[in-house]
């Protein structure tokens, strides 16, 4: 009996593909080759049939493996094509992402520059605001009227901007009536009387009384607006006169009084004037 190696040769089953070559001869050719080889060897019919059955089975198994390998290769090739397409799509997506990233960083840099510019402008505005706020606060504390009309006193005398108002026998003062001087106007309907605030002028007392009446009106208005506001020296009219001519206990008239009383009245007048001035600066009332 022949051994398997004596009656068979290695099968050169090949399948050609893109990845390699597999030679797969058809079954008829292989069977004819086997039958030819068997004729040259003395074998019984039973052994021959068994051998043919075994070889046929091997051939069938080999054919199935070949078909399976071909199918697998085709599936691999299909998967490879799919992967190629997916890879191409991924590469295209990566290029798009690169473009988006480049655009993002460009926009980021532009925004950063704009932000820095804004912050610089903001810091500049804040510095200006702080400076203006400090200046405004300083101006709020500044009393322009006090700076312009500095009302104070010097002993028995009231003073304004360093000038003494009044006269006392024991104090020698120089009086200079030359130059510009103020005046008061009394308006009664269409009638208007003007009184010069010029010392030694015969109309001086009328001018002082008119000024005192103006002060009285301002004081009354302030007291109506603010209940807690009271002038330190009250103004009132003498029994002989209609208009206010006394402040506290002193008459503003020089003609019928004495220098000491008149000087006291001037001092009281300046004090009340300073109070009204301070009230006017502390409120927002319309004094028109």
TrEMBL record:
Q: Which UniProt keywords are listed? A: Coiled coil
Q: What GO MF terms are annotated? A: phosphatidylinositol 3-kinase binding; protein-macromolecule adaptor activity
Limits of the Atg6/beclin coiled-coil domain: 65-134
Give the UniProt record's GO annotations in the biological process aspect.
autophagosome assembly; cellular response to nitrogen starvation; late endosome to vacuole transport; mitophagy
Q: Where is the chain membrane-spanning?
A: none
Q: Name one GO cellular component term.
A: phosphatidylinositol 3-kinase complex, class III, type II
Q: Which domain of life is it from?
A: Eukaryota
Task: List all Polar residues biased stretches.
Answer: 1-19
Q: Where is the Atg6 BARA domain?
A: 139-174, 188-280
Stretch list, region Disordered: 1-28
Coiled-coil features, chain-numbered ranges:
59-103
In its keyword annotation, does this UniProt entry include Coiled coil?
A: yes
* Family note: Belongs to the beclin family.
- Indicate what this protein is called per its UniProt record: Autophagy protein Apg6-domain-containing protein
